[in-house]
Amino acid sequence: MTTAVLREPARDLPVFGEFDVVVVGGGPAGIAASVSAARRGARTLLVERYGFLGGMGTAGGVTNFAGLYGKRDGEMTLLVRGVADDLLGRIDALGGLNQPQDGMQGRIRVRSYDTSVYKCAADGLLLDAGVSLLFHAWAASVVMDGGRIAALVVETKSGRQAIRANAFIDCSGDADVAAFAGVPFEVGDGHGSGLFPSTMFRVGHVDAERALAAVGEFKAINALMSASRERSPGAYRFPRDGAILRPQIDPREWRANVTQIANASGRAMSGVDARELSDGEVEGRRQIAEYFRFLKAEVPGFEQSAIVEIAPQVGIRETRRIEGLYALSGEDILASARFDDVIGINAWPMEMHAAGKIEWAFPRDEARTYNQLPWRMLVPRGVDNLAVAGRCASMSHEGQSAARASGGCFVMGQAAGTAAASLGSASFAAVDVAALQAKLRADGADLE
Fold first, then answer.
1. Cβ distance 165 to 247 under 8 Å?
2. CA proximity to 95, closest of 247, 216, 250, 206
3. Tens of pLDDT along 132-180?
């Protein structure tokens, strides 16, 4: 007879190193956090599960930066500045950054990029800033000392190891470190579902001229899907309405955001459930193969195309969100909220990936289509030397649907890293916000 659990023997862990700041997760938040901490003199280590940086932007195949631009005084303006400028500048210098692309009747603007160039640019940015990198390492546990994290435990190809630091920043996307440390959190929408994930893919060998004429407009692919359903009911099974098919720098290559991954009960697949995550990877590829059949048969310019990449992992939009000193809400997005403890700007609207569709909700002030982000949303309850930045920061389900975009993640990461560099024996909750704001402005951030 087998038992449900096994007891692991206690063991001594080798210490990988001691640092001032340890950042977990190498997406936009982690990149900005580690660069900001290192530039301000902190011995900084970035721990990343893959062998490259970029988070969902590379591992998830997103291939565009969203939330950098919003309307200020009615004019579309670049609003997320600082470390994000440095990274995009490096991607551009290597020839991997597209011109801005507008959508939703001019209400959003994104910058697409080449994922391989992004990886190389991010490496250079972090190494030039003096950040130490530990790739192929997975946060596994923490060692607590009262209300502080004394060490992070990671799994590596060299075995299980401990990393000591004065300050820790959780940019894992899933609030892994916060959860290990006992920080309270919510998952998804609180009702067993959440923002549905998608598996991204890229299509090459496209006849650019014909494809741009047919689906160059943001919504044109959805019109073709509707026409196909009317003409041949049941011929294709589309995972959702609101497909996004856009050209890359070379218009012979296109990115496709068209899939939607549910679990066996029809709710959003959980990105923190090992079985659902495994099943979701297979389902995402199944949906891609089905949708690609439609592209080749029904969309002009795609007849001779080929899939050139399926993202290394399913793209996760929402899992755990910590309970912090303040939770950014959907109303904050719609009301273009301002905060006294502002650390930067989120310029992305609410983007709710619901069952079978995407529901967009834009700020009511059409001349000011952005909100400020408060420092308090990065500060978890109960752990003094931990900050949380990125999609797992303190937000409601609705607020997270907007601020999870890369623009907001850059902002949160830069603030967290800047604060961590001089934390000392203090807590993140006691950070001098006015001094932090002055440092962020000096480093190029736009706080309005």
1. no
2. 250
3. 999 999 999 999 999 999 999 999 999 999 999 999 999 999 999 999 9
Q: How many domains in the chain? A: 2
Is residue 304 located within the same domain as residue 327? Answer: no
351 vs 55: CA distance, rounded Å? 19
- Can you tell me the mean pLDDT for 184-203? 95
436, 428 Cβ separation under 8 angstroms: no
Q: Rounded to the nearest 10 degrees, what angle do helices 83-93 and 406-421 cross at?
A: 120
Could you list the residue range(s) of the whole structural domain that residue 223 is in? 201-310
Q: Is residue 328 part of a domain?
A: yes
Asked if residue 207 and residue 172 are part of one domain, the reply reads: no
| Residue 355 domain flag | no
Given strand 201-204, what is the order of strands in its sheet?
Answer: 244-247, 254-257, 201-204, 306-310
Residues 181-188 have a mean pLDDT of 96
User: Which sign does the torsion angle of CA 428, 430, 433, 436 carry?
Assistant: negative
Domain boundary among 288, 310, 332: 310
Q: Are residues 215 and 326 in the same domain?
A: no
For residue range 269-320, list pLDDT tens digits in order: 999 999 999 999 999 999 999 999 999 999 999 999 999 999 999 999 999 9
369: tokens are 């289509």
- In percent, the amount of the chain with pLDDT more than 90 equals 95
Amino acid at 96: G
The pTM of this model reads 0.96
Q: Assess contact for 22 and 168: CB atoms under 8 A.
A: yes
Report yes or no: 271 and 319 within 8 Å, Cβ to Cβ: yes
Residue 141 sits in a domain whose CATH number is: 3.50.50.60
Say if 417 falls within a structural domain: yes
Report the C-alpha gap between 278 and 300 in whole angstroms. 34
Q: Quick check: is 85 in a domain?
A: no
